[in-house]
Amino acid sequence: MYGPPVTNNGLSHVSALDFGDPFRKHQMLCRFTQEPPLPWSAITTSLGILVIALLVGHIFYAALNRIAKVEEDFREMAELKLKAEAADIAKSQFLATVSHEIRTPMNGVLGMLQMLMDTGLDATQQDFARTAQASGKALITLINEVLDQAKIESGRFELEAVPFDLRAILDDVLSLFSGKSRNKQIELAVYISDKVPETLVGDPGRFRQIVINLVGNSIKFTEHGHIFVSVYLVEELQSVKVNSETSKRSTEVKNGSSSSCNTLSGCEAFDVRNNWENFKLLHSNGTYKLPNTLKDCSSPETSQTVNLCVSIEDTGVGIPLNAQERVFVPFMQADSSTSRTYGGTGIGLSISRFLVELMNGRMDFVSKPAIGSTFVFTAVFKKGHTCSQLQDMKLRQSEALTTVFKGMRALVVDGRPIRASVTEYHLKRLGVQVETVTNLKSAIAAVGGGRNGDIRSSETRNINMILVDKDAWGQGSGLTFPKILKDSRQNGRTRYSSELPKMILLATSIGDDKTDTAKAAGFVETVIMKPLRASMVAACLQQALGVGNKRQQGKGSPPPLQSLLFGKQILVVDDNKVNLRVAAGALKKYGAIVECAESGKSAVEMLKPPHKFDACFMDVQMPEMDGFEATRQVRDLERTVNEQIDSGAISKEIDRNIIKWHVPILAMTADVIQATHEECSKCGMDGYVSKPFEEEQLYRAVAEFFESKLTSTA
User: Fold this and answer.
1) Where are the beta strands (DSSP E) in 660-704?
2) 467, 528 in Cβ contact below 8 A?
3) What share of the chain is helix, strand, coil (3-state, %, to 5)?
4) Which sign, positive or negative, has the C-alpha torsion 518, 521, 524, 525?
5) CA dist 629 → 599, 602, 623, 624, 691 (Å)
6) Which range (101-110, 269-278, 314-323) has the least confidence?
7) φ, ψ at 419 (rounded to 5°)
8) In this predicted model, what pLDDT tens digit does every residue of 208-257 receive, in sequence order?
């Protein structure tokens, strides 16, 4: 055959050929000249099948391992969850215990201070005791702040909704910082618009915490000038227009040739909204522009909501421009160096802003270095007109003061109109009719019978007191007013026929020498020290005018607590003897008949029906048997007796003809953990009073209960 000889490579084929020749055989040999290619398709197919099989096996293997790992992780997470819950409970219990142990002695301190204030103290001693009490309350607030972080982390940070008096809270804040402001000779004042309701419903403790933090910062960073706290309704501000041209610089306040900024203290303030020109507009018609950052946060007004705008203005060092962006960042300060002038943790503003946002408000500020800062925040509360009990208590508490000063007329002499308006605001709270004058000519005319026609003589002849600011027209200028007035009278320029009214000096700070000078000039011995608060002004006026009496409050209708507690048999249970004494003293002050027990076991024996007690105040944490267990046992005893009465085994005439035994048990708790309050309800307690309790809190705790009990027994 044809073709080159090729070695046999095994790739050949022999085919037989038949040409019809029987003598010859023919065959055909076929062979390839090249080796055949490899069977790649078969190889790749086999390999693909193998890979797929391996992948499927790996997937199954990984899935099994993953399931096992997920199950193991789930078990670990369950264990960690249990540990975390146990740690959270332990932390809450630890914080509750620490809070209780700290607040328990503070309850004794504040309780004794309150009992001290109920004794016959003069105005200065009352002020000292009240300031010490306010400082103790601030410490209690600080202890509560330690618990805030735990509440935030656990998601249980909630605001209270209780009625409160906004003006009383701001008076307490002023009392707290009065010593520091006097030492620095800083004007510290509060002004609240008349349109702000007397009673609001919200969280007074958190609101007080915000204001204390802002005022405290202002006190810390202000060395001269003033700190002015003003409160208005948001819609009230939106109805007044600020003239930016006339507000940038203040008008002149003259006592000769000197001029100064027309602010509270005369020092320049960066925020011009509290200048006198704008201050006046708030009491007239116009349009006021809120800061743009606060406009959006204004909640829609309803008939039941009150949208407040609170401003804290100071003339301090201001905030550097490069630090203003991080003002609300926790633990950040404008000066974070170790050699910084001012201390602090830097968390106060961030907490305050968080609280403001919880109140459906917003906080913002304006500041300029070396001029001062103004922090403004809004907060939404509910109107308190539905809480008639609190309003009745407030009304009766203020009756003694308003009846003493009702119908009296006062003349306020001060060269600074804003400061004079602040004095007028506090006097009007006491029921005093007030006239203000800002210059010597008007003051002499007012006292002399209104010869210039500015003030009607028929009104001014009945002036009972003249209040003169020590720095009315400059440093110490007010001390000369009595001499100027007497000289004017001797020269015939005034026609005041009767004896001059008593003149009372107002001062931020005054030394003994200036006090003697004032007394020699014709002022009464009592000096009203700033910052002004209604209670302090009332005490000083009583002492200066010789009217009223602290014991006079017992005349007429009794206080609401006395009307509720008088003659009631109260059992107080506490293992701390100081707290027993404080609680017993507070209740006895309102006419209650108090017996004490020092353990839960003793309380159970004393509350075993039949007994004589109308209510029980029981401490929560006590040795041997705590208040929770004692309450459970008392409820079990009452349940047993009630079942016997229902079945007829025991007559209801067993004692006092009581059909169903259920003595009100109020927990006296020194911690504010929500779990404690829940435990109080679970064990059968009717309410709780947080230590140290005050009159308002005590009234809210017992008023509804005693009234409902009287109704049911009637």
Assistant:
1) 665-669, 687-690
2) yes
3) 50, 15, 35
4) positive
5) 11, 12, 11, 10, 20
6) 269-278
7) -65, -40
8) 889 998 999 999 899 999 999 999 998 887 765 544 444 444 444 334 33
